[in-house]
Design goal:
CATH topology of the largest domain: TIM Barrel
Number of helices: 19
Radius of gyration: 25 Å
Distance between the termini: 29 Å
Largest sheet: 8 strands, parallel, barrel
CATH architecture of the largest domain: Alpha-Beta Barrel
Strand order of the largest sheet: 3-4-13-14-15-16-17-18
Structural class: alpha/beta
Strand content: 15-25%
CATH superfamily of the largest domain: Aldolase class I
């Protein structure tokens, strides 16, 4: 089916393998307008992506900021595992804590007897323009904003400058939330009619439960396709070694949505056997990889891995991966995607196919989807964004960001990629390191 379109003959082992630059899609007649295109896809039986894009679990691509930004755009970030178990677990928890309902839970507050000088410092540190005022019993007694403190004496107290409770505009939580979703039009009406920028939200006991700002409403409306879990939280994935049971269990307990197996050669029978055992102890969905052939796909599909949701496809095709050059082993990602997609289609398994490696532009994404992928995994495209954890550098005045493969010399020196490429540390690099052009925000790229 998919492989046949690329001219691949299963019976011929020496046929030509095609990379993204080797093909172009032929145009045909269509009555679909660009704004009508729907790229949403199932990542797992429980998780739908509005945008079929995952970020690669690389230490200079995906941490908390990337996961939050990509989930807000309808994709999902996959946290790297080149860190302690505790750090990866904490990153999952931070993504899950990110507020996306439009209501700021646990807003920064102050007390009536706090000096104005301290309030100014707190506003600067937390980058907020207003603070609810709570007394010693936890009751809301007012709010103080940046406008209130501008002309106030530094030694004045909050209670002298705040807007008191009786003059505040508040609302009950159940008045603006329906099934966990914020009624944005009603909130905007309240903000506009009272000429305020902040709306204090109270729970059934009359205590402060959150804060809504006009800025948050605009952000919510600009991101209608946020990737959410069943509880309304941002979706997040995390990479694991197929041999690291402790990490898998810890991430599962932290609430990760999908565990992405991160091993160079997924058809390693030891890795497959280990993952079969681990899968029986976790509730999270599993994406297994990397694989690159029809036979590998058939082997994984017939395995005893429970909660198997997808296959990660690609071996040696990454923009900074040298595996094919160093080992002589590899399949171009486009060809591998078609081979694996055919195996999944013919098996009638309900699995997603994730094309991973060598995707350098939007055209490559379209080609991968045309070859049978449900989604793509990108490292290069996101490495140059603001949300990538690497530092920005300037080369001849041009902004760039650092990028490296997970089997690059520095990664090996740092003992980061040891069990991805071998159970024991080895010294032969299979990746490179360098810089990529600075691209701005994830939103700009997506």
């Amino acid at each position: 089916m998919f492989a046949e379109k690329l001219g691949i003959d299963y019976e011929c082992r020496l046929n030509e393998h095609l990379a993204f630059d080797d093909v172009s899609l032929l145009p045909s007649e269509s009555s679909v307008e660009p704004y009508e295109v729907d790229l949403s896809t199932w990542l797992t039986p429980e998780h739908v992506l509005a945008v079929p894009i995952l970020s690669s679990p690389m230490d200079r691509v995906t941490e908390v900021e990337m996961c939050i930004a990509l989930a807000r755009e309808g994709g999902i970030g996959i946290l790297h595992r080149n860190c302690s178990i505790e750090k990866e677990v904490e990153m999952v928890k931070r993504v899950k804590r990110e507020e996306i309902s439009g209501i700021i839970r646990d807003p920064v507050t102050t007390t009536p007897d706090t000096p104005i000088s301290s309030v100014i410092k707190l506003m600067q540190e937390k980058r907020v323009s207003g603070l609810p005022v709570i007394d010693h019993s936890g009751e809301l007694v007012g709010i103080i904003t940046r406008r209130d403190v501008l002309a106030a004496r530094p030694d004045a107290l909050v209670k002298d400058e705040m807007t008191p409770r009786e003059k505040l505009v508040t609302c009950m939580e159940n008045e603006i939330l329906v099934d966990g979703k914020l009624m944005t039009e009603k909130v905007k009406e309240l903000l506009h009619s009272h000429r305020i920028e902040k709306l204090l939200v109270l729970n059934s006991e009359g205590r402060l439960s959150g804060l809504v700002t006009f800025k948050d409403i605009l952000r919510l409306e600009e991101n209608p396709h946020v990737s959410r879990d069943s509880e309304g939280r941002l979706m997040v994935g995390a990479a694991i070694s197929p041999f690291d049971r402790k990490r898998a269990l810890a991430l599962d307990a932290a609430g990760v949505d999908v565990l992405v197996v991160d091993v160079a050669h997924g058809l390693n029978l030891n890795a497959l056997s280990s993952m079969e055992k681990i899968s029986k102890e976790v509730n999270a969905w599993i994406i297994y990889g990397n694989i690159a052939t029809r036979e590998a796909a058939e082997e994984v599909i017939s395995s005893d891995i429970e909660n198997l949701a997808g296959l990660r496809v690609g071996l040696g095709g990454g923009s900074i991966c040298l595996t094919t050059h160093v080992t002589g082993v590899g399949v171009p990602t486009l060809t591998a995607t078609a081979l694996v997609a055919d195996a999944v289609y013919e098996s009638k398994a309900k699995l997603s196919v994730i094309a991973d490696g060598g995707i350098r532009n939007s055209g490559d994404i379209v080609k991968a989807l045309g070859a049978g992928a449900n989604a793509v995994m990108c490292g290069y495209l996101f490495a140059g964004t603001d949300e990538a954890p690497s530092e920005k550098v300037y080369i001849r005045g041009v902004p760039m960001k650092r990028y490296r493969g997970m089997a690059s010399p520095s990664a090996i020196r740092d003992r980061y990629a040891a069990d991805r490429y071998a159970r024991k540390v080895k010294e032969v690099p299979e990746g490179v390191e360098g810089v990529v052009p600075y691209r701005g925000s994830v939103r700009t790229v997506v």
